[in-house]
Amino acid sequence: MISIIVLGHGRFASGIQYAVNQIIGEQDNIAFIDFPESKSPAQLKQEILTALEQLNHTRGVLFCCDILGGSPFRTASLIAQELPIAEVITGSNLQMLIECSMEKDELAFADLVELALSSGKQGITKLSNELSQSKQRSVQQEDGI
Hints:
54% of the residues lie in helices and 17% in strands.
């Protein structure tokens, strides 16, 4: 199975977990690990290693972090280098995690990584773009294209 470990500063991970659970229900084989001010990088590393012991990651581990260069990212990156199949992604958002959670058991690891990137980027948009695209689709349907 593919495992997902969500990491972030403050209560980023637990906040995302709450939202994911509200929208699609509790998910198996996913760990959410916060990095509050009171936690040291060594403690964070130990929590990640403990999560890896508890998760089934025979097909890989996808680390989803909040920001590039932060302690969660750096810690996950060091651990990922020691695993046979792992990737670390930053800029994680709710859309990315919902889609990856629902597809992690169906996709190959490389495809899940690509889904994470594409769905994360797709989730970042502005209303005027969405309205413009919606209008274009509507016109194309009317024209029979």
